[in-house]
Amino acid sequence: MSPRPSTAEAGPVVTAPAEAGPAAPSVAETVVRLRPVVFATPTATGVHVRGWSSSFTVSGGAGLWKVWQVLARHLAGGLTPQRLAQPAGRPEVDRVIRLLLDQLREHDMLVEVPAGWGDLEEPDLPPADLARWLESVAADPAAAWQRLRSTTVTVAGTGPVATSAARTLTGAGLTVTVDPVGDATTQDTVVWAGDAAVAARCLPEIGYVTPVAPPEQALAHGAAVAARLSRETGPALADASVTPALAALIGAAAAHRIVCAVAGLPDPAEEAATLPGGEPAAPGPYYPSVLVARLDPVRATYHPWLPAARVPLPGAPSDIDAVGLRLEALSDPELGVLPPAVPGDLPQLPAMLALAGPALGVAATADAARVDATLRYAETVLGLGVPHGDGDARDAGAENGAGSAAHWTETAAIGVDARHASGAALRRLMHAVHPRLDTDPVPEAEWAGEPAARRWWKALTLRFAVPARVVARRLPAGAVHAEIVTDAGPLAWAVEATAADAVAMAALAATGVAQARAAGVEVPAGPASLTGAAPTWRPADQHLAPWTDDSWYWPAGVIDNEERLQTALRAALTANGATLTVRPVVPVAASPADAGHEADLNADSVVHALAVTGFASQGFRWTDSATADSATASRGA
């Protein structure tokens, strides 16, 4: 694109040539300009135009490039809306110009500014470099400039970060006051204007800027971010010398966030979330973010800060791709409350494995294994997952199932959504109490011929040579409980709508544990379990290979039976007068030794992080018929 000419040089572009050029517009007029971040490239049959976040191509002939060159030159200088509305002399040229203008407006590549904006040195106009920036990013640059020039920003603190922030704010046209005393309770530099504030701090090799919030919240976020980052840096680094380059970056970034807040512009983190690496991001949730900068090499990236996020509305996307984005926020390597689930050097055949801290995730796909590992770790931190009751450990289902002494049993689970959490909790409850229910054996012929069950059973017994056997029981209302057992005890179990799916799930869980142990992973004792309520991946129908069938993508279709299965489990658990009640999930924080991670193990922070990322929890209490009758009689008396 040609350099912007002065306003006086801008001539007519959409009207027929006149004998005399138009007079230059006055400063009071508004002109339409091409945003400075818009550039164009000729193509063989037209022109390709790209802006900050979008692009378009117009085809129709090599002459389009010449039309674009003329139009862009005059739009760079500015044309009044009246001039743009006038038709061009030749109909074919006018159609091309209208098409280009329509596309420019649709992609937000045009902006209205006062005449002389960035070109004239007027007291009411910003400096040229600031004008060009506002013209590039603001929907109404003049209004943004008025907000900036009428706002006073306070920089509280001393040192190179405060100096950099004050210098940047002054360059942006704001009135700056410096409070060298600041808040004695914090080491952060606080930059604030009205109710908008950020906290910033620079350590020798790392620095951060918190999201915009009221001053008190910004201070709290700064202290919490410092504590979270101190897991790696250590608190002693706060007294070490600060690198000037990093301090300048942190101070300028803090000023940038406040300038955007004052001017009514999108937060820089929001723009970064939509354009990672210069490409549009996949659709997903956005969370308030902290800028974390590091040295060697110098880099600055935004990381989700879940303590500043709000609980989303019900119905968060639960497909495996959307859940992966939510996991990234929950397990962010800089600021996440849970460790990332990674495959590491674990073998990935036949089962997919992942580790989140010490928690092992097993699944048929890599993404599902990450989800499984993360949720298992979260349940470990919160003390959930193992059913308990008023009997002994065996009665509560912690080992071999429920015994005759237990009168009630409770369990809870965390899932990617409410259906997943309910399905996992109901299955655990059913596993704990199924010996007390009327069940029937399921013949081997009912599952042995199904591809998924046969695959994972052969992987367990042939590939890993585990001398196991299957015990499958049909539950009341039609569901199936399958357990993989050896002479030493149970290895895995599953509850699904069909015998084939139940055996396949249990065999997959047992195979994953055997595979991990063969690789040297210390897997806790006790039977493993998987659930068909978890999200899985399946390609779209148009992308299915002609030689494949549903068994290739198992367990993708298992979740189709989930509603029917949960209805059957509720019916089975309430048969013969027993009761099933929903219970609030009360987390019990695990010890660091149990969790095996140095992260902040505060139960409240984990519960909040799970909630704001759309994960759900569900708890149930089952009471047998004798206990329920006794309670009813007591109330009657």
List the strand order in the largest sheet. 7-6-8-9-10-11-12
* Tally of helical segments: 19
Radius of gyration: 32 Å
Class of secondary structure makeup? alpha+beta
Distance between the termini: 89 Å
Helix content: 25-40%
What characteristic shape results from the CA principal axes? elongated
Main pleated sheet: 7 strands, mixed
Strands, count: 23
Q: Which spans have pLDDT < 50 for at least 5 consecutive residues?
A: 1-27, 275-283, 391-406, 588-600, 628-637
Please tell me the overall pLDDT: 80
Strand-residue fraction?
A: 15-25%
Walkthrough of the structure:
By secondary structure, the protein is of the alpha+beta class. The protein is built from 19 helices and 23 strands. The strands form six sheets. A seven-stranded mixed sheet has the order 7-6-8-9-10-11-12. α15 links the parallel β20 (489-496) and β21 (528-529). The longest helix is centred in the middle third of the chain and has 20 residues, at 244-263. The protein is elongated.
